[in-house]
Design a protein that fits this description.
With 298 residues, the chain is an alpha/beta fold. The protein is built from 5 helices and 5 strands, in the order H-E-H-E-H-E-H-E-E-H.
């Protein structure tokens, strides 16, 4: 049995860890509230951009296919996979589930004869992909805790240029969509080409237009409007994913640190019982020594 002093040292060590986990939980909770506010403000705008893009594409008809970002490539040989993770860890399986989903998607594409080119946002994703031996065509780090629209534009410019230049035939984004502090859903979204399913259902309408909608007259023509809307749509989709991922990270970290604090409390309780047993054993030993000494004097 460990001595009373050893158990006291263990209790002190666990209490120090518990203080750190509680502090990290409170910091994550404060950042989560701000991230939730950003999501609440962003989602209506992102939904409106998706709806406008879909309506303009429908109005443009066959002319929409003249746009490089709306035109499907004849051959489908290479896909760009954009994985969005956090810059830091200590958030349970938040980052690892994105890596697993990306690797699984790459394997499925390989079965269809498609190669994968990797893009990573977040240090955890970038380092994990590099550790697995994947060469990254684009790595973006240092901003996932509080992403700015300029960060999303930088990523969007790279993937759109790769698609227009013919280096990739498809762009798929994998990220954690935020539901609640306890729940983050792994989401796969096809960014390019923007046809059919890519433009349908992004605003929660399951691909259906509202029953009553005023007739829209486009000035200039829908094709010119699409030239401006489509890049904005890609940028706002990536920005939304970055913001959702940031909120999901803080929620996952807050939950993980709360669980760690509770586990530390249980360990402290167990060590306290061990210390009490050690103290009781020491007292019992001292009593036995006193009794033995008294018997020796009689």
């Amino acid at each position: 049995m460990a001595s009373q002093r050893d158990v006291k040292n263990k209790i002190a060590s666990v209490k120090n860890i518990q203080k750190i986990t509680r502090a990290m939980e409170m910091v994550a909770a404060a950042r989560l509230r701000r991230a939730e506010q950003r999501i609440a403000a962003l989602r209506p705008y992102a939904d409106a951009i998706g709806r406008m893009t879909r309506q303009a594409a429908a109005a443009a008809g066959a002319e929409a296919l003249r746009l490089p970002l709306l035109r499907e490539h004849e051959s489908q040989s290479t896909a760009a996979l954009l994985l969005i993770t956090g810059d830091r860890g200590l958030a349970g399986g938040f980052n690892s589930q994105i890596i697993r989903a990306g690797v699984r998607l790459s394997a499925n594409l390989a079965e269809d004869g498609m190669q994968s080119r990797w893009y990573g946002a977040g240090r955890r994703g970038v380092s994990s992909l590099a550790f697995r031996g994947h060469e990254l065509d684009g790595s973006y780090t240092g901003f996932t805790d509080k992403p700015a629209y300029a960060d999303a534009r930088s990523i969007a410019d790279d993937v759109m240029q790769a698609y227009v230049d013919g280096h990739v035939d498809r762009v798929v984004m994998v990220y954690n969509s935020y539901v609640s502090p306890l729940t983050q859903h792994v989401t796969e979204q096809t960014l390019l080409p923007l046809t059919g399913e890519a433009l349908v259902g992004q605003d929660g309408e399951t691909g259906q237009e509202p029953r009553s909608r005023a007739t829209v007259e486009y000035e200039p023509d829908p094709e010119k409007i699409l030239r401006r809307l489509v890049p904005d749509y890609v940028e706002i989709s990536i920005y939304r994913a970055l913001v959702e991922s940031a909120a999901g990270f803080f929620g996952a970290q807050m939950t993980a640190m709360r669980s760690a604090s509770e586990n530390a409390g249980e360990i402290i309780t167990e060590y306290t019982l061990q210390m009490n047993r050690a103290r009781q054993a020491e007292i019992t030993q001292e009593i036995m020594e006193v009794v033995a000494g008294a018997e020796g004097l009689t």
